[in-house]
Every structure is written in structure tokens, then in C-alpha cells.
Amino acid sequence: MIINYNLVIIVMLFIVLMSIQFTLNKIYVLLKEIKEILNLKKIKDK
Questions:
Q1: What are the TM regions of this chain, as residue ranges (predicted)?
Q2: Which residues of 4-41 are buried (b: 16+ CB within 10 A; e: fewer)?
Q3: Segments in the chain below pLDDT 50
Q4: Around 8, how many Cα atoms within 13 Å sit in the side-chain half-sphere?
């Protein structure tokens, strides 16, 4: 059985990049929610 290492490396790189993107997207959404909560709190305090 012949293993194409280039293909394996490309697939692994793709998976790592997708996981990084997913993580960054989750962080972005969380920061957006925190910003909205802080804005609501600031408006409520006035």
C-alpha cells in the first residue's frame, strides 16, 4: 500500500485551519455578545 504523504499533509493542514477558523469565530461571537451586554448595562446605568 502506497501512502501519499503530500495528500496526508494537505488534509491535516486543512483540518487544522478549519479548527482555527472555528475557534476564532466562536471567540468573535463571544466578544460581540459581551460588547452588547456592556452596552446594555451602560445604557441602563444612565
A1: 6-31
A2: eeeeeeeeeeeeeeeeeeeeeeeeeeeeeeeeeeeeee
A3: none
A4: 4
Q: Is the dihedral of CA 24, 29, 32, 34 positive or negative?
A: negative
Set of cell numbers at residue 12: 491535516
Does pTM top 0.85 for this prediction?
A: no
- DSSP letter string over 1-46? ----HHHHHHHHHHHHHHHHHHHHHHHHHHHHHHHHHHHHHHHHH-
Distance (Å, whole) CA 14 – CA 40? 39
Number of domains in the chain: 1
